[in-house]
Structure formats: structure tokens, C-alpha cells
Amino acid sequence: MAGKTAPKPPPLPLEIAERVNRLATTHGRIIMVMSGVFALIAALQHRTPTAIAALLAFGAGASEWQGAKHLREGRASGVSWMVAGELALLVVILAYSAWMMTHFNYHEFITQIPQWQQDKLFDDLRAQGATEAEIPDLFRVLNAMVYGVLSFVSVFYQGGFALYYHRRRGPITVAMTQLPNSR
What we know:
mainly alpha
């Protein structure tokens, strides 16, 4: 049996709890920082739906972070907070994407692009055979595609996180019962 190494044993429940705690703490903080910045930018630009969505996403990140805090305090109920945070963030992303798909404003969108880029963009579109009347519809389709992809990816990403936390509930519960200060 030379050259073969013994298979690595599965991680202990306490190790699993520590990993989940580190992940949830980091992920929750990242969500809170990013969504907080986006909420501030959206509010400064008077984009109410975007600011509201960013604040709701901040709350979802805070829920995940709160779950990690519960784990650090020895409470297995933190897993429920983390799962709820991920599912809440998924709902926020899907609702915001649906809003953006159904409330696309071509004229507001196009005014955000500098004039020199607009000119180049329109020249390129015309060279591809697009007429002036088709250009707003092309941007509507592009907008729908972007938010559709965001929604699709979010279902797997946020749903994957929620499933990851949920599947570790058992070992985390075992780990919390082994701690001297568990609740």
C-alpha cells in the first residue's frame, strides 16, 4: 500500500459550525457593505425603487450576519437566521429584477450615456442594420436579458447558500450542544 494515503475523515460538527460561521459573517458583511453603498448612491440619484431594494438587501445581509452572531454565542437558531437572510435576499433580487424589466425607461437610460458614446453606439447599431425606431426596443430586450440572467444566477447562488446553511443545521446543532455555554 505504499504511496496511498488514508482518506481524510469528515469534519467534526464543531469544525463545520466554525466554517459556516466564518462564511456567514463574511458574506453577511459583504452584502451589507455593498447594498449600503448602492442604497446611498441610489438615494443621491433619487432612484427610489433601487434605494428601497438596496436597503432590503442590507436587511437580508444583516439577517445572515445576525445568524453568525447567534452561532458565535452558541445558539443553533442562527442557522434559521442565515437561511432566512439568503431567501430574503433572493426575493429582493427577483422582485427588483421584475421591477426593472417592467419599468424600463429608454430615455432615462440613454441620457446616462455620454454623448460621444451614444454617437458611437448608434453608428454601430445602424451599421448592423438597426433603424432608429428599433433601437429603443433593442435596449429593452438587452435590459430584460440582463435582469433575466441576474435572476437566474441569483436563484442558484442565493438558493445554494440557503441550501448549504440548511444542510449543515444537523452538525451545527450537535456542535452547539457540545459547547459548555450552549442555549
